[in-house]
């Protein structure tokens, strides 16, 4: 799967990009028709500790799934986003297979 990582208001390091890539690749186990993923990592300029936002957009044929999570770390936000997307992809796969 093609994963594009976009960093907003900061520069992203290689370790974080690799983590995002690995986590998004795991989603293919649940639904093999995933075309690509766009991951937007943002830092909000607030005094709040939970100022890291991960917005993940998954492209599948005929649909797009968008999840946005805000946490203390990017890793945590990406992990929560991936879990939500995993549930969405499983639901979609079940829905499609029930129509066949």
Give your account of this protein's structure:
By secondary structure, the protein is of the alpha+beta class. It has one domain: Ribosome hibernation promotion factor-like (Double Stranded RNA Binding Domain, 2-Layer Sandwich). 39% of the residues lie in helices and 33% in strands. It has a four-stranded mixed sheet, with helices on one face. Helix 1 runs parallel beside helix 2. The two termini are 25 Å apart. The model has no long low-confidence stretch (mean pLDDT 90).
Count structural domains.
Answer: 1
CATH fold annotation: Double Stranded RNA Binding Domain
Helix content: 25-40%
Oligomer: single chain
Number of helices: 2
Parts with pLDDT < 50 across at least 5 consecutive residues: none
Protein name: Ribosome-associated translation inhibitor RaiA
Pfam families: Ribosomal_S30AE
InterPro entries: RHF-like (IPR036567), RHF/RaiA (IPR003489)
Organism: Flavobacterium rhamnosiphilum
Features:
single chain; 100 residues; alpha+beta; Double Stranded RNA Binding Domain; 4-stranded mixed β-sheet; 2 helices; 4 strands; elongated; Ribosome-associated translation inhibitor RaiA; RHF/RaiA; RHF-like
What is the compact description of this entry?
It holds the Pfam family Ribosomal_S30AE. This protein is α+β, with helices and mostly antiparallel strands. It has helices at 14-26, 74-99, and strands at 2-8, 36-43, 52-60, 63-71.
Strand-helix topology:
Layout: E1 2-8, H1 14-26, E2 36-43, E3 52-60, E4 63-71, H2 74-99
Parallel strand pairs: 1-2
Antiparallel strand pairs: 2-3, 3-4
Protein name: Ribosome-associated translation inhibitor RaiA
Pfam family, one: Ribosomal_S30AE
Organism: Flavobacterium rhamnosiphilum
């Amino acid at each position: 799967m093609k994963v594009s990582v976009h960093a907003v208001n900061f520069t992203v390091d290689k370790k974080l990009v690799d983590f995002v890539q690995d986590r998004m690749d795991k989603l293919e186990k649940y639904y093999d028709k995933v075309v690509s993923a766009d991951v937007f990592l943002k830092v909000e300029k607030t005094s709040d500790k939970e100022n890291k936002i991960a917005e993940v957009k998954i492209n599948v044929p005929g649909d797009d799934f968008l999840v946005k999570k805000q946490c203390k770390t990017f890793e945590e936000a990406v992990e929560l986003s991936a879990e939500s997307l995993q549930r969405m992809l499983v639901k979609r796969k079940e829905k499609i297979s029930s129509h066949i």
